[in-house]
Amino acid sequence: MTVQTRQPASSLFGTPEIEMCDRCGMRARVRVVLDGGELYFCRQHAGTYRETWQQRMYLVKDLPL
Predict the structure, then answer these.
(1) Cα–Cα distance between 31 and 6 in angstroms, integer?
(2) Is 10 inside any structural domain?
(3) What is the pLDDT of residues 30-45, one digit of tens each?
(4) Which of 7, 18, 28, 49 is the least crowded, having the fewest Cβ atoms under 10 Å away?
């Protein structure tokens, strides 16, 4: 089985990559670094889950605008 990968549009056009919320697809404002990867969330969903992340001691970083 062959796995094909693609280059992100940002690397093709020289623009910064914009991450999208993993819950709703809006522009992400927060990145949460987990043991097995990372998740991205908009402000609304970040507010919903922030307390859980803090209790579990996950690294939470605000993304630049």
Answers:
(1) 22
(2) no
(3) 999 988 889 999 999 9
(4) 7
For residue 29, give its domain range: 16-62
Tell me, yes or no, whether 9 lies in a domain: no
Is position 57 within any domain?
A: yes
Tokens of 2: 């062959």
CA 23 – CA 3 distance, rounded (Å): 26
Contact 59, 38 (CB under 8 A): no
Q: Which of 52, 23, 57 is nearest to 40 (CA)?
A: 23
What residue has token string 């993304």?
A: 63
CA neighbor of 30 nearest in space, from 57, 56, 50: 50
Q: Are 50 and 57 a contacting pair, CB within 8 Å?
A: no
pTM: 0.68
